[in-house]
Structures are given as C-alpha cells and as structure tokens.
Design a protein that fits this description.
Strand order of the largest sheet: 2-1-3-4-5-9-11
Distance between the termini: 34 Å
Structural class: alpha/beta
Shape: globular
Strand content: 5-15%
Helix content: 25-40%
Length: 509
C-alpha cells in the first residue's frame, strides 16, 4: 500500500492531534512523505511537539486559528476501556469535549475534520458483520464516549469518521505497551502469558491503518478499516510466539477478562473501506520493523545503543571495513574523505582511518525536523536536499575526494551532492558506500515506496549516472557479518540471504 498526495488538500498541511501517541506517531511518519504535517501532544508527552489542551475551547481555537491546516486528523483520546470506567469525567472531557472544541474550530475556519473511532461503538451481539449505519449500542463507557464523538463529527458536513478495531505495531521503544509487546516481553523473559480465548478481535497493523487514513483524506461520512480474519488474544499470542521464536507452551487461557467488551464485532468492508493484513502477516512485518538493519545504518542517532550495539561505533567500524574495497591506486589519488552530512559522518571517519587519508567536513547541513529520505515526492525531496546541504568551494576546489554516504537507495541525494561538489571544482569524485548496493524495496513500511536507483539508472553504469570517477560498495558478506549476531535481523532490502553478484568483490564494477 502506498499513501498518495491528495490534490484536494489545497494548502498541503495536516494537523494530527495525539501525534506523540501510538497511531499518531505512525500517521505523522506516513503523512510527512507527501504533506506538511504538524503534530500536537498532551502535556506529559514528547517535548519536541507543542502541547495543546484540547479540552480547553479557547486554547483549541487560538491554536487552529494560528496553524490553519487544511485537514485535522484527531487521534488523541483515552482508548483504554478500563481507564474510562475508572475516571468517566476525565474520559468524557478527553474523548467528547475535545471533539466538540475541534469541530467548532473547523466550522469557523472551514477545515476538514477526520475522527478516528472504534469498533467498540457496537455491542458485538449481532452475529453478522456490522454495517456503517447499524444501531450503536456500546457495552462500556469508552464506547459511549466514542458514540458521542461520532455524533458530533457527523453533525459537521466536511468530516470523516474512521472506525478501526484494536491496533498493534511498532514505532520505537517509547511505544505504549500494546498486547503484542506485552506478549513479547513476557515470553522473552520466559514468563507465562495469560490471554482471553473468548472475545474475537480483528487486529489492524498501525502502518496499514496510517496508509489507509492518508489515502482517505478526501472522503466524507463513515469508513471502516479492518483485517479479515478474527482471532482471540490467545490465538494471537500463539502467532506472536511462532514469529518471534518463543515457547508457545507459556501461553495459557484466562477467560473472563473480556467482561463489558463486545464478544464479536466484525466491521463490514464495502466500497471505500479498507481490508488489511491478517495477524500472521502483520506480526511478521512488526518483527522485521523491530529488528530492522536500517535503524543501525541510518535512522538512529549515533549515541544510541540498539541490538546490543552502539550506533556510532557500528558505523565507524563498517566504514573501516570499507577501506578494503577501494583499490590502492584509487586510495593514492584521494586527497580527502568527505562525508555526506549527517548520515555519512561516522562511516567516513572509519574509512579515513582505514586508508590513512585526511577526513574533511566540506559539506555543511542545516538540519530540519524532517529527514529528506522520508519524502516521497522527487521534486520536493530534491529541493529539500539543495536547501539543507551546502558545499564549501574553498575546501573542494582541485581536490580528489572519497564521498561517503550510508547507502544508495534512490541515488537522489548523492547525485545532487556530486553536482555540488563538481561545481566547486573538485578534480575527481569517488563514491564510497559502507553498505551493499540496495536493489529491493522495503516491504515493511520503514522506507517510502519509490523508484530505486537500480531501476532509474537503467543500463548506465553508476559512474556514468553520478558522473563520478568510481563507485565502491561494501562487500555483501562483510555487511551480513556485521549484523549476523542480531537475532531476527531484517536486511532484506540489501538482499539478505541471497548471493549477490554486484559489488560482492568490493569493486563496484
């Protein structure tokens, strides 16, 4: 599935409430590939986002008047039924009053409003699929607040209600503890998991929910998103154990925990709705996201420790091993090792040490919140790269350079940087990449869908495509060895488990 830019979003800006939450965080990631996205949070969450009290009508009106987005997607709220039962006053303020305030602001400024709702608006006693206009008879106070929120949303003509069952998936280590995460933690520690085997749910992977929401910005009325095969939590836990390689004997039945829950709600999927993957596929994607090699290569900060490795040290060592892939005749020509900022920094430091050539930061990057790699639109991405990266001519003129970046996927960044460096009078450019040449698209939603360089370059050599004097990649075997000790690691985009003919001999020829 691929999120596409919607021409009806006139000013290209979207406001996501609950942007530091489970779905909100993923939705912002997907939307930022095509839109200008603004997120707001609760007071206690992510300090990188502005905090707005959605239960305060004046605060909401003031913020919306300032931001003036084309669309507001409302993901914020209390989604735990037990919490709503314990504090119904707070639940009504957060789940109902906030919607009322947002709708009022949307009416005033003519903003499209999208409300994320739930299958818990139904009682689950019907015995067949629930249509959009079926009678809503929630079994708990959480469901009651969502019915009220739906009614408020439905009273505004430029709105969309999206009903979604239980959500699961992975953003990062700061995610709330969802059912799959609880199961994984317990089984990893060899502790039993007690799970209900009565209530039937239709879990939806947050990535697929986010893509479908992004594709539905123009719709009005009510939309259903659901997987097609129901499971109990007991059955779901067994699927998780299988995928993560844990002992299924630790999973045990505990019935009765689904009281005040609808026993079986299956949302009808008709025209305009979205059918998502079953739990086997979704859990497999989640596992690969949790153990994604790209997190080590690009996504994480250098001072982070993941998979038992320090990110900066890992990249430094991979850069050092790249030194063996560059012919000695080329090394003798290189004046400086220059990183593409900031993704190539530690790799370039390692390479510089390995080949005993000075390291030089001759490219300057002006950071912004959005990383250009995540942008899908080629024109927007090229503009962002040119705005963010600047070359220093005085350091580059007349020099032969080893230009280092973390990987080659689409080649957009490197081609622009090569043009910059050449315009500064560089004598020769050798592109040096500490990972193998990437020829496979990511199927786990980590990277946006777009044309890879392997397709874009066609029959051209990479040297001709970049107008470079040489292109050198890391040995595929060395790269696999560098991540080989990580349980369940996914490096499929680099051809994990395959024999590769390109760059396996470290020559890029």
């Amino acid at each position: 599935m691929k999120a596409k830019q919607n021409p009806e979003v006139k000013n290209n800006s979207i406001l996501v409430t609950g942007a530091s939450g489970f779905l909100g965080k993923k939705l912002c990631q997907i939307l930022k590939r095509n839109y200008d996205v603004y997120g707001i949070r609760r007071q206690k969450d992510n300090r990188d986002l502005p905090a707005v009290d959605l239960t305060d009508a004046e605060a909401v009106m003031a913020y919306v008047a300032l931001a003036r987005p084309a669309v507001i997607i409302h993901t914020a709220g209390i989604a735990e039924p037990d919490q709503c039962e314990k504090d119904p006053v707070l639940a009504e303020k957060v789940n109902v009053t906030a919607v009322k305030n947002l709708i009022t602001a949307c009416r005033k400024w003519k903003i499209r409003f999208i409300q994320i709702s739930t299958d818990y608006v139904f009682d689950g006693e019907k015995g067949s699929q629930y249509k959009k206009k079926d009678l809503r008879m929630p079994k708990n106070f959480y469901g009651q607040t969502k019915v009220q929120a739906e009614d408020l949303t439905g009273s505004y003509s430029d709105s969309l209600i999206i009903r979604v069952p239980i959500l699961y998936g992975y953003n990062d280590e700061n995610d709330k503890e969802t059912f799959p995460v609880m199961v994984i933690k317990n089984l990893a520690d060899n502790r039993p998991v007690y799970a209900d085997n009565q209530q039937i749910r239709y879990p939806v992977l947050i990535d697929e929910a986010a893509v479908q929401i992004a594709d539905s910005l123009h719709k009005s009325g009510i939309m259903h998103i659901s997987s097609g095969r129901g499971v109990t939590k007991y059955e779901w836990a067994k699927v998780i154990a299988d995928q993560f390689g844990y002992d299924k004997k630790l999973i045990r039945i505990r019935n009765g925990e689904a009281e005040n829950r609808p026993p079986h709600v299956r949302l009808e999927i008709s025209d305009g709705d979205a059918l998502t993957s079953d739990v086997e596929t979704g859990v497999r994607i989640m596992q690969k996201q949790m153990c994604c090699a790209f997190r080590l290569i690009y996504k994480s900060h250098a001072d982070h420790d993941i998979y038992g490795k320090n990110v900066g040290q890992y990249r430094y060592q991979l850069g050092k091993s790249l030194g063996t892939c560059i012919p000695s005749a080329v090394i003798h020509e290189i004046d400086y090792v220059v990183p593409v900022p900031s993704s190539g920094l530690y790799y370039a430091m390692g390479l510089a040490e390995a080949i005993q050539v000075p390291y030089l930061q001759a490219l300057v990057k002006y950071d912004s919140e959005t990383r250009s790699f995540q942008i899908s639109d080629p024109g927007l991405r090229k503009k962002m790269i040119r705005d963010k990266i600047h070359a220093i001519p005085q350091l580059l003129s007349g020099k032969s350079l080893a230009l280092v970046d973390e990987a080659v996927f689409t080649g957009v960044t490197l081609r622009i940087v090569c043009d910059m460096v050449r315009a500064c009078g560089a004598k020769k450019i050798y592109i040096c990449i500490p990972t193998p040449f990437e020829k496979k698209e990511c199927r786990q939603y980590v990277q946006p869908e777009r044309k890879l360089l392997a397709e874009e370059a066609g029959d051209q050599t990479l040297e001709a495509y970049f107008q470079a004097d040489g292109v050198f990649f890391q040995s595929h075997n060395v790269f696999l060895e560098s991540v080989g000790d990580i349980r369940g690691i996914c490096s499929e985009c680099f051809g994990q488990g395959e024999k590769r003919s390109y760059a396996d001999d470290c020559d890029g020829e």
